[in-house]
Design a protein that fits this description.
about 450 residues; alpha/beta; nine-stranded mixed sheet; six-stranded parallel sheet; 16 helices; Gfo/Idh/MocA-like_OxRdtase_N; nucleotide binding
């Protein structure tokens, strides 16, 4: 059944699409005012609700109505249904199976915050079901998944936002960094260092009983069928309330079966800014060299030989040759953030600061008026979702689009492949394949488990 207000909202979105064709975008201020009119608010659903899933939902409640939530953990699902009910004064429908959401005609768009290995399947199926998509970073588990998502975005015309919030939600520090580079304040860029921190391995994690509230088989989904593993110690702080060591909630990032470790987790943030600064014509890698790295378990032919503990790289120093003789380093050492070095100076930026002589010089030689807006392509919203809704209204791709994200994420994926195989990789950016290395190219794709293939 379609909600009574849905036709009106569709007409509104279609009208804004016409405005978008004329080059107009809705301002963040008008979105807030429009949010007071229920018939003009888009209807969302969130799939995957732990941690970041609730984070993106809570930031969007002032801009959209949430009709449904989905999660394979009944406790997580129930908790977040109550949270949304309290905020919007109406309970969203609750589902374990996300496909129930995709079947509904009254839902305009979905927000996806599942573990990484589910991103592509849900994203593709959502677009084919006529939904616009917001998916958390890193968008894909493999490079070929990125190609598929790009194909479906083009095929369906859906608006797709990737959750790389550093493009809009870090007090404009990263936008200022790019504006400094575009203004020539460090001369020609020679080197960029992305510090993304390392991680630690784990002790042996034994097979354990699956929590009663969790559908473990559905959580695994496209990944290989394995036993649930966990130690009794509970994680504290962010992501807390679950086992500190497991192959499931929160800790999934430490397993190549489900994610890419720090390289794709934090790399998806800082390498993204580095590539944005270099520009579209110079952001594809030429050669990836694993200068030094540490894997917590033994590997053979790129695959871990031990399956009862974390297997992603714990320490790393990756050298990437970029166009125009720019050296990009991705390292687990030093401060988390990005160091830009050029012929005329250098500066450092992260979520807490932007420092260096070119930054200090702004006191007497400020950037031109509108320089930051020029980087962003218009007024900068304080909320990443606001840019997505602007793009939905105009039927244009948002600031965190799938193409720029995938070009950047290819560097991160290739870095992981280089470490798993223990050798340099040469990349053909036009063909999007590794040069002369069939074994390495086999890691560009991954077969889904039977029964969890993408429904095309």
């Amino acid at each position: 059944m379609v909600k009574s207000g849905h036709a009106t909202r569709r007409q509104f979105l279609q009208g804004m699409a016409a405005a978008g064709a004329a080059g107009a975008l809705v301002s963040p201020a008008s979105l807030v005012m429009g949010a007071e009119s229920p018939n003009e608010r888009p209807v969302f659903a969130t799939i995957g609700l732990r941690n970041q899933g609730w984070g993106i939902t809570s930031k969007s409640l002032g801009l959209a109505d949430f009709a449904a939530l989905a999660d394979v953990d009944a406790n997580v699902l129930g908790t977040n249904v109550e949270r949304v009910k309290e905020r919007q004064k109406k309970a969203p429908d609750a589902y374990k199976d996300y496909r129930k959401i995709l079947e509904r005609n009254d839902i305009d768009a979905v927000m996806i915050a599942t573990p990484d290995h589910w991103h592509t399947k849900i994203s593709v199926e959502a677009m084919l079901a006529g939904k616009d998509v917001y998916c958390e970073k890193p968008l894909t588990l493999t490079i070929d998944e990125g190609k598929l998502i790009e194909k479906i975005v083009k095929q369906t015309g859906r608006v797709f936002q990737v959750g790389t919030m550093q493009r809009s939600e870090s007090d404009k520090r990263f936008l200022q960094a790019i504006a400094l580079i575009r203004a020539g304040r460090i001369g020609k860029v020679q080197k960029i260092t992305c510090g993304i921190n390392g991680t630690s391995g784990s002790p042996e994690i034994p097979v354990a009983s699956v929590p009663a509230e969790l559908d473990w088989d559905f959580w695994l989904g496209p990944a290989p069928k394995v036993d649930y593993r966990a130690l009794p110690e509970i994680r504290q702080g962010y992501g807390g309330g679950v086992p500190l060591y497991s192959n499931c909630h929160y800790s999934f990032r430490e397993w190549h079966e489900y994610a890419g470790g720090k390289l794709t987790d934090w790399g998806a943030h800082h390498v993204d800014i580095a590539c944005w600064a270099l520009g579209e014509d110079a952001n594809s890698p030429k050669k990836i060299s694993p200068v030094s790295y540490s894997l917590p378990v033994e590997y053979k032919d790129g695959y871990p030989l031990v399956h009862d503990r974390y297997n992603v790289a714990t320490k790393f120093n990756i050298k990437v040759e970029m166009p125009n003789d720019v050296e990009l380093t991705i390292t687990s050492e030093g401060d988390n953030g990005i160091l830009f070095e050029g012929t005329d100076g250098r500066f450092f930026v992260n979520r807490g600061k932007i420092v260096g002589a070119p930054v200090e010089a702004l006191a007497t030689n400020p950037l031109p008026e509108g320089a930051i807006e020029a980087v962003y392509g218009g007024p900068v919203p304080s909320n990443h979702t606001a840019n997505w809704i602007e793009a939905m209204n105009a039927r244009k791709q948002p600031i965190s689009d799938v193409w720029s994200h995938n070009r950047m994420l290819e560097i991160c994926h290739l870095s992981n492949i280089a470490m798993r195989l223990g050798r340099d990789l040469n990349w053909d950016a036009s063909k999007r394949e590794i040069v002369g290395d069939d074994q390495a190219n086999a890691f560009l794709a991954r077969e889904s488990r039977k029964g969890y293939e993408i429904n095309m």
